[in-house]
Each structure stands twice: as structure tokens, then as C-alpha cells.
């Protein structure tokens, strides 16, 4: 004899199992999405690891070393201090002709980005390139590059992080005698002869500074604060 009640019971159990499976999958998807969002927020506002890809900061930093970047300064809109190593977004224009150099307004040029374009470029960091350099001068300071050295407010800057014999000069056209604008910093690489930096494209606005270098985390024998 055919038992309709038993069949309905089996169908209901199957529906319950299917619903439970779908619910469990949705819960996992929800958890993963939340975790990804929290990770992206932490990366943007707090800190993130990175890898040194160029040699412009040699000997302080070497290629393939791993660093931990502190991004809290970007969150609080705090200018870094002189001597700190920072990362910042690559300017839109890296070189100027002699007629384009304006040392009365020595600020790096950037493309305006809004909406989704800004989100993809700056928050997700897709298609974005960043530089890593050392802060040399702060807002209001008079910078002069002459005789192979750096002068801040007419005083020679002591730079113990440079290799012996390294000179600081301008290759071709660049910024060599100016006052750092408000809410900007002037930064250069320690490997002066192999560094494209503010000498070529101008000072970096605060809003384009992404982070300061907090720690070197690899290799382990060099783990610790970077100075």
C-alpha cells in the first residue's frame, strides 16, 4: 500500500536538508565577505606588508626585503618627520623641461581621481605604483642642492645613512633651490645616483603619502626598526 504520509515526510526532510545547506553556504559567503572587507580596511587605514622592488634606498633597504608599513599617519592626516622613510603614490609627471620648472610652486603633479576610479586605484591598489623614499625637508624649509650636498635653511644636512662618497646633485633639469610648500614634504632615495625622486618631480602632498616604514620583517637576521 502506498504511504503518502511517508512520502511527504521524506520530501520535507529533503527540503529541510537543502535549505540548511543553502543557509550554511550563505553564512560562509557572508563571513568571507566580512573578513575581506575588514582586511581591506585594515590594509588601507592601519598597516600592510610590502616588498622592496627597487634599489633606490640602498644600502638602507635592499631588493626583496619585506617591510611592515604603518598607515596610521594617512588615517590621521599626520605629516611624517624628517628622516622617516615613506611610501607615496607615483606622480603623474616624473620629468620636467627647463621651461616647466617652477621652483615657486615645487609640488608634484597628480591626476584627479574620483568615485570608482579612486576606489580601484587607491583603496584596492589595482594598477597603482608607489615610491619609497626618505623625508629630507618639511613644510616652510628652504632646500638647496649644491656642491654635492643638501642644505636646509642654509645649514648642511647631516646624512649618516648615505654611503661614503655619495654626492647629491641634479641630473638634467630638476628642483634644487626652493621652499617646501605647506602640507608637503621633500623626499629622496638614499642611493642618490640611482633614485628618481622629488629632485625630478617636486614635493609630495600630504594626501599622497601612503605610509611610513615601521619594521623590516625579512630577512630575519635584519628584523627590526628601519632608520
Describe, in short, the structure shown.
This protein has helices at about 5-45, 70-75, 115-125, 200, and strands spanning about 45-50, 65-70, 85-90, 130-135, 140-145, 150, 155, 175-180, 185-190, 205, 210-220, 225. With about 230 residues, the protein is of the alpha+beta class.
Task: List the SSEs and their pairings.
Blueprint: H1 4-45, E1 47-51, E2 66-70, H2 72-76, E3 85-89, H3 115-123, E4 130-137, E5 142-146, E6 149-152, E7 155-156, E8 177-179, E9 184-188, H4 198-201, E10 204-205, E11 209-218, E12 224-225
Antiparallel strand pairs: 1-2, 2-11, 3-4, 3-11, 4-9, 5-6, 5-8, 6-7, 9-10, 11-12
List keywords for this structure.
single chain, 227 residues, alpha+beta, Umud Fragment, subunit A, 2 domains, 8-stranded antiparallel β-sheet, 4-stranded antiparallel β-sheet, 4 helices, 12 strands, 25% strand, elongated
